[in-house]
Amino acid sequence: MNIWSEILDILAKDSQLSELIVAPNAPPLSRRQGAFSVVSGKVFSAADVEETLGGVVMRSSGKKQDHLPQAGILCVGVRGVGRLRVCHFTQRGSRVLRIVRIPFEVPDIASICAEPERALEIAEAIGQRKYRAVLVYGTSQSVLCQTVYALLNAVNNTCRQVIYIVEPTLSFLMTHHNSLVVQVEISTDVATRQEAIHHAFLLEPSVIHLGDVRITEDLTNLRPLFLSDVCTILSTQADDPGALLSQLPPPPNPTPEAQNPAILLKAWAATDGKIWLETKSWPRLERA
Questions:
Q1: Are 48 and 42 in contact (CB under 8 A)?
Q2: What is the pLDDT of residue 22?
Q3: Which domains, and CATH codes, for the chain?
């Protein structure tokens, strides 16, 4: 039985519920600030979860798939609930779903950041392309998405630029304000991130965001971006970005206009939900 409507009902009843984990033969669990709690006394079967995933995939892609992938991430928007990121994987032959709620509205820096003035300074530097490379990292995917989009939204509202966004699944839908915003979803609009980067050079954007970058990817294709005038923002889910940094091309060299052209930006949420940002210098690693 497809239990998607029951999952949405759980989320709709509690607007503060941002994460739900659904596994077979167990009640659904919510996670708030690292603590788990049971949100329903119902226990769903493996067939229920499998059928539900099939329905979500069809809702996201617009077509039915006879063979579902063993793991993946997709996004769907639901009126009255919000935009949901659905992560799924297989364990012992059964599906497990992790559903993260991301609001429809692109977050505003002033409302989500503990130090909004500092965040606005970072956004201004991005909009003026004083930074050529920014690596945003942290342990929470939701916090990363909100942080990057809040920064891009500030650029969109205050600067006349072309913003190019590439994500495996889009986290928010942005509208054009002072800037022109182009959003590309991997597997929907392009087959690979490399193809999306190639398209970026055809457009020549001012700011490009590459979301959910992973160490398992071939990152050599980023070198032309680092050598161009574009401000490249990368985001990765990691407590320590050292392993990813070792795979990235060397950061841009300082210029008179950009004395500190490459920075690391750590983002995390406090117990009150406010997001804190910490900037660090991009280390220049010795490479063979």
A1: no
A2: 93
A3: 4-102 (3.30.450.90), 109-281 (3.40.50.300)
